[in-house]
Write a structure and sequence with these properties.
By secondary structure, the protein is α/β, with parallel strands linked by helices. It has 10 helices and 5 strands, in the order αβααβαβααββαααα. The termini are far apart.
């Protein structure tokens, strides 16, 4: 199966998935969207009202802000892959629960394996927690870390900038760093899940 086929397969499975209670209240599941060879993947929290209606990620107010931030650095939403930690809307936009995140993780993992992006941008605390458990967004936003041969960089969720206007310039500054992060990631060895451990790890044995 090539990467497009795998993404389509995930989408089809997600549309019918009943692996957590979120399936009971969803209208449309939201797998995510974007090119299968995207260099950048954005991971949000979960579908909201409009996403649940349309079956597409980030199509409400937070999505418009995300789009304008992308445009400010010369990117359109069609050039990046956008998805969420949970693929079905938590009722009333409540926080996704740990068991829901865990049940849904397999789909995100398959998407990331298929796309193999150079840079992963986490939007908000639930996707951040996947890579930086226990970290505080105020301390680590905009700071890239290397994880498994790619860069992972935590951003504030765009909705945070909508609710706290003071954060807007911080979010803009973080986005402004994206182009150089992608360039930095391009200089690194290509991410490869099966690559041998680095010499430091080997010397432990
Ligand atoms: N907020 C998210 O985290 N994801 C969406 O898709 C929309 C809003
Ligand atoms: Fe399945 Fe994920 Fe939807 Fe839960 S949130 S029903 S695990 S697709």
């Amino acid at each position: 199966m090539n990467r497009e086929q795998e993404l389509k397969a995930v989408e089809a499975e997600v549309a019918e998935c009943t692996d957590c209670t979120l399936h009971m209240s969803r209208k449309l599941a939201v797998a995510g969207e974007g090119p299968a060879d995207s260099e950048i993947v954005f991971i949000g929290e979960g579908p909201g009202f409009h996403e649940n209606e349309q079956g597409r990620p980030f199509v409400g107010a937070a999505g418009r802000l995300l789009e304008s931030m992308l445009e400010s650095i010369g990117l359109s939403r069609e050039q990046v892959f956008i998805c969420n930690v949970v693929k079905c809307r938590p009722p009333g936009n409540r926080d996704p629960q740990p068991e829901e995140i865990e049940a849904c993780a397999k789909y995100l993992e398959r998407q990331l394996r298929a796309i193999n992006p150079k840079v992963i941008v986490t939007l908000g605390r639930f996707s951040m927690a996947r890579y930086f458990p226990g970290a505080r967004i105020s301390a680590i936003h905009g700071k890239a870390k290397t994880k498994d041969g790619r860069l992972v960089v935590p951003f504030y969720h765009p909705a945070a900038a909508l609710h706290q206007p003071k954060l807007r310039s911080t979010v803009e500054e973080d986005f402004a760093k994206l182009a150089s992060l992608v360039a930095r990631a391009q200089e690194m060895a290509p991410p490869d899940a099966d690559s041998p451990p680095d010499p430091e790890q080997l010397s432990m044995f």
